[in-house]
Amino acid sequence: MEKVIAYLEDFSTGTIAIRLALALILSAIIGLERNKRGRQAGMRTHILVAVGACLCSLIGVFLVEKGFSTDPMRLGAQVVSGIGFLGAGIILVQNKSRIVGLTTSAGLWNTAALGLSIGFGFYEGALICFLISIITSMILPKIEYWFSKNDMYTMLYIELSDNTYVNAFYDNLRNSNCGEIHQLEIVPPRSSSAGKVGVQLTLTLPKKQHVYELEKKLCAMEGVDFAVAL
Fold first, then answer.
1. Residue 212 in contact with residue 205, Cβ under 8 Å?
2. pLDDT at residue number 14
3. Which residues are within 8 A (CB) of 38 and not within 5 positions of it... i.e. 6 or more apart?
4. CB-facing half-sphere around the CA of 223: CA atoms within 13 A
5. How far does Cα 76 stand from its chain's mean position?
6. Which residues contact 129 (CB under 8 A, 6 or more apart)?
7. What ranges make up the beta strands (E) of the chain?
8. pLDDT tens-digit profile of 77-117?
9. CB burial of residue 208 (10 Å; 0-12, 13-18, 19+)
10. How confident is the model at residue 146 (pLDDT cuts 50, 70, 90)?
11. Which pLDDT score, from 0 to 100, does residue 95 have?
12. Does residue 128 register a pLDDT over 70?
């Protein structure tokens, strides 16, 4: 055990890969749990943020190892505060509730850390981080989709323009092959506009249908202002 700890404390290509891989695994577990609960910041967003943060700390250690007189913590603090302004401009709110752009924002933040490592000559960390980012963007969406589509129940909040659309919405819902409806409940509307009607829907999705596709289908119905998964 002591030999393993001593090896991990050493600053080599192997330990760099282990630290970045550990950040990948732990953040993926957290992201999957958030994704199962229908949160917008899912597995890919968590991985990109964690791997980028890990790389920033490794860059600071790398500089100290090379003899630079610097505080390793200062680099990470500057990157976090600086790239946050750029990332915030990409995050948008659609239909008054759906947040989009989180993965893109995290990707930019991750790319900034990768650029820092290349600029300082920390090529091993930059290459490993690049490979993880490619896998996260191209392969992991399929895994994320697989976990989402196997949820037993899906809950959504739908907001209607007024109460005259309630019966028509229910009829359209039954005839649209949206899945098996378990519960439909009228709830207080989330928006402040007068006359709106909130609907909380629980159903089982059809096979091979993603919840985001269902949201688009519901939004296309007459009288529906927006629909979002809970």
1. no
2. 81
3. 154, 155, 211, 229, 230
4. 18
5. 21
6. 20, 51, 52, 55, 110, 113, 114, 117
7. 92-94, 98-100, 154-160, 180-187, 197-204, 224-229
8. 777 677 776 666 666 555 444 556 677 777 777 877 887 77
9. exposed
10. low
11. 47
12. yes
Distance in angstroms (rounded) separating the CA atoms of residues 122 and 52: 14
What structural domains does the chain harbor?
2-148 (no CATH), 151-229 (3.30.70.260)
Task: Name 28's Cβ contacts closer than 8 Å, sequence gap at least 6.
Answer: 43, 46, 47, 140
Given strand 224-229, what is the order of strands in its sheet? 180-187, 197-204, 154-160, 224-229
> Directed axis angle between helix 13-36 and helix 2-9, to 10°?
90
- Lowest-confidence region among 9-23, 25-39, 117-131: 25-39
Mean pLDDT, the chain, whole residue set: 76
Q: Radius of gyration (Cα) for the chain, nearest Å?
A: 23
pLDDT exceeds cutoff 80 at 167: yes
- Report d(CA 153, CA 134) in Å as an integer: 31
C-beta of residue 204 within 8 angstroms of C-beta of residue 152:
yes
Q: Give the up-direction half-sphere exposure of residue 126: CA atoms within 13 A in the CB hemisphere.
A: 14
The Cα-based distances of 154 to 6, 69, 78, 79, 97 in angstroms read: 47, 54, 40, 38, 17
Asked whether the beta carbons of 64 and 72 are under 8 A apart, the reply is yes
pLDDT of residue 39: 55
3-state secondary structure (DSSP) of residue 174: helix
Average pLDDT over residues 123-147: 77
